[in-house]
Amino acid sequence: MSHAWNAVDKAVGLKVKLTTVDGGEVEGYLFTFDSKLNTLVIQEVVSTDPKKYNIRMLKASAVTKVSVLPGDAEESKAVSISRLPLVDWAKIRAKEAQTIDRIKDEHIRSPEGVAIFAALLKTWGMSLCSSVCF
Known about the structure:
Blueprint: H1 3-8, E1 15-20, E2 25-34, E3 39-45, E4 53-59, E5 63-68, H2 73-76, H3 89-108, H4 111-124, H5 126-132
Antiparallel strand pairs: 1-2, 1-5, 2-3, 3-4
């Protein structure tokens, strides 16, 4: 990351205009800059209602210029992180566990799995079922 990108971190929450390598322009509030992913996140207000906005993620390599635009303090509140919902990690982990269990069940009951088990059962007989089924 170049030294120029270090200054971008200080512009978080401010109104900016980005110029892209293809000559395009993106205007909005700098929501965040992730130096590890080299990514800028811009909140674009799409109407006079600050509750309606677009979020754009751009790779820093696609941006040639970042300009801070004048804006008042009230406008900067549009980027307030307090508007983001909290992440419920317990709920996410529970959903992940349910999905993994469902995928395991689907895999066991897949036509291929049933065919393999039927072939093994035919070859090994009930001795296979007593060791595998219980």
